[in-house]
Amino acid sequence: MKAKTSITLSQELLEELRGWTSEGNRSDFIERALWRYLELLRREARDRDELGRIDGASERLNREALDVLSYQVPV
User: What are 33-56's pLDDT values in tens digits?
Assistant: First the structure.
């Protein structure tokens, strides 16, 4: 379901938008752009969370890697 809303955009942005859309497609273009931006924000938040977990486990993972390497047979 769609709801009508009003937003204020800079003249510069409106001119750029006119170059990419026709008059009737402006709302669809803005909606698609917002969905993509929201997905980008979700992905960035997920990546930050994952990096935090990896950083939190880095010492343990490094110790485990060194332990595994100690079992390696010299060639």
Answer: 999 999 999 999 999 999 999 999
Q: Is the pLDDT of residue 7 over 80?
A: yes
Tokens found for residue 41:
């924000």
C-alpha 41: how far from chain center: 4
In the prediction, which pLDDT does 68 show? 94
Please report whether residue 64 resides in a domain: yes
Amino acid in position 38:
L
Beta strands in 1-75 (DSSP E): none
Q: Is residue 21 part of a domain?
A: yes
Q: Domain containing 54: what range?
A: 11-70
Question: Burial code of 20-57, b = ≥16 C-beta within 10 A, e = fewer?
Answer: eeeeeeeeeeeeeeeeeeeeeeeeeeeeeeeeeeeeee
